[in-house]
Each structure stands twice: as C-alpha cells, then as structure tokens.
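Box S1 | Example of a co-folding query
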Amino acid sequence: MKGYAMLKIGESGWIEKERPTCGPLDAICKPLAVAICTSDVHTLWEGAIGERHNMILGHECCAEVVEVGELVKDFKPGDRVLVPAITPDWNSLEAQAGYAMHSGGMLAGWKFSNFKDGVFSEFFHVNDADGNLALLPPNINSVDACMLSDMVPTGFHGVELADVQFGDTVLVIGIGPVGLMAVAGSNLRGASRIIAVGTRKNCVEVAKGYGAVDFVSYKNGTIEEQVLALTDGQGVDKVVIAGGSVETFESAVKCLKPGGKIGNVNYLGSGTYITIPRVEWGVGMGHKQINGGLMPGGRLRMEKLGALVAAGKLDVSPLASHVFEGWDHLEEALFMMRDKPADLIKPVVKL
Ligand code: NDP
Ligand code: ZN
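Box S1 (continued) | Returned holo structure for NDP
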C-alpha cells in the first residue's frame, strides 16, 4: 500500500509499505477524508518528537472499516467511523488511573504518526477498535468528521483543563483551529466574555461566530498589557493556551486573577524551559494553576462530541478553509499547513 511518510526530520514523500495486520481486538480502516494538523508540522519539520524514519504521517481522518479482529464486538467491515487522534490502550493502569492518553508511558496514547504509522495511507491500523472507534453519525459529512479527530476534542480539552465555569471571563491564546474550538467550547460552557489572541483575519471572523468578543494581537505589544487594559486591570478567570511558545505562559500567568486556571493544549515544539513569573504567581502563593494535557481519545468522547455536532449544537464547517480532492493533493495540503497562508484555517483532503 502507499503512504505519505516522514522519511527523516525535514523530508517527506510517498512510500510503499506492507498493509498492517489486524490483531484480535483491532481494526484495519481506509480513510474517507484526512486533515492536516499543526502537530504534523512540529513532527516533520521541527523534529519535535525526535527522529522518525519512513513513518507514515497523519492522525486526523474519518474512515471506513475494512477488517476487524475476531474479538471486536461493535464494528464490522463497511462501517463508517470517527477516528480519534489519540487511541489509548484502555486495558492499562494509566487508563484506570484516569489518564488513558498516557497509557503505556507519557503521551503514548498518541500512536498514529508517533509510535506507529499514521492515517495518510491507503489503510491504517486501529488498536482496541471497540474502545477507540465511534460510528459516524449519518448527517455529518466526511470533511466535518475530520474535525472530530483532534480539533474539537483538543480545543474542548483546553476548556476542561482551564475548568471554565458559567460567567467566567476567558482568554483564549491562539485562534487557529484548536483555539477556535476552545472559543466554541468556552462559549458552550457559559463563559460571559471571551477574549481571543490571534491575527489571521479569517480566524478572527470565525472566532466572532463562536463567541469571542474582544481581540488582542500578540504583535501589538504584550498580551498582558492589552488584556489587563481590557479588564480594568483585573485580569481573567481562565486562560486556554492554544498557540504561542514557551514564553506564552509568562503572559498567561500575568493575565490571570488569583485562583485562576490555565489549560494548555499547545504542543511546545521548541525551547527548554517555561518560565513562571514569581511576583505575578503570587510569590508562589497565588493559587494560579497551570495544567497542560494531551487530549483524551477514545470512543465515548468521539460519540459525545459527534452527538454535539450531529445535533446542530456545534458547527465545525467554518474550520475546513481548504478542501482538496484526492491523495495527489496531500503534499500540497501538508505544505500549506507549514506555510500558513493568511486565509488558512485547516486543510482537508477528501478521498
Ligand atoms: P495554528 O498555528 O493554526 O494557530 C496558532 C495560533 O496561535 C494562531 O492564532 C496564531 O496567531 C497564534 N500565535 C502564534 N504565535 C503566537 C504568539 N507568540 N503568542 C500568542 N499567539 C500566537 O495552530 P493550531 O490551532 O492548528 O494548533 C495549535 C497548537 O495545538 C499546535 O501547537 C498544535 O500542535 C497543538 N495541538 C495539540 C494537541 C493536544 O492534544 N494537546 C492536539 C492537536 C494540536 P496568528 O493568527 O497570527 O497566526
Ligand atoms: Zn492533530
């Protein structure tokens, strides 16, 4: 079978590989549509998870099941499915502890294009099919379904990590597709005011539609100066970080009220340390929590978030700004994600 792979850091291309084999609990699927993620860019061009040779890229797609193992109960060939980017081993101690995304070691629930071949391929392997796949609701199209692999659950996990409550003022730093879903999730959770940080015009327009009312550009001075000015010096209750770098945490802490919480889902592709400003962190006693997490994967989350989209309570269609047809356009879509043209939110390839 053909797959589009990371040949080594900074180099990619189509390769031939053996079709994966199906264990008793597994499924083999073929993608119906795939989406490119900023994480693919971190992995391939920044080498953020280290060197990988001939590893097929991609972790966002929806798919059709082509084969299941003899112990799989709820899925059969021909089923159209939602596929989470994170596919934990549900029968693990980490899953029992409530951190399935770290099953088998830190971040090890993230298997596609990390520990095994990803989904930019004619066929791909899903471990623990009953625990990880979800049936694709019939009224969700294949492009929107791709947004349920990673963008919706990651943005929403940022909201969970920041513990957004009714009436909170929330700052969302970064309004690419992940941050946009954090804006939508904060809105659904009852935030009274959402301040968003980002400059791409398209993203700003879409963020308004999802409930952001105030906008800050990180290019026009520090985020904290602007946010404190917008909030009469009070700061915000919660911060979701979905963009920026290791330096962004300093701004986030400075923007936060005492007792506030930060939920980070940004993948820090470079830098060695995150600095926490001593004084604004209440000289160690400000009750400002900093949480960072890989999104939890799995079937239940896919089913619930899929139900939200199927019920019309969350419209993900504004995210797919560039839709291509056919594998021939995959490389173009991937390079587009690296270069981030001004009108880009998310490139998707229909198959
Ligand atoms: P994008 O690159 O599309 O968006 C990044 C956003 O951050 C943009 O709004 C950008 O602004 C803004 N930004 C850039 N630089 C700064 C800065 N210095 N300070 C503040 N904001 C800044 O990324 P995605 O939405 O696709 O992904 C966001 C992050 O989430 C990525 O790092 C990705 O790898 C990660 N991720 C994490 C997952 C998890 O499970 N935790 C899963 C999936 C993705 P501008 O409008 O100017 O471009
Ligand atoms: Zn992703």
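The pocket of NDP (ligand 1) is lined by residues 37-39, 42, 150, 154, 173-179, 197-200, 203, 218, 242-245, 248, 265-267, 294-295 (CB under 6 Å). Residues 47 and 70 are 38 Å apart (CA to CA).
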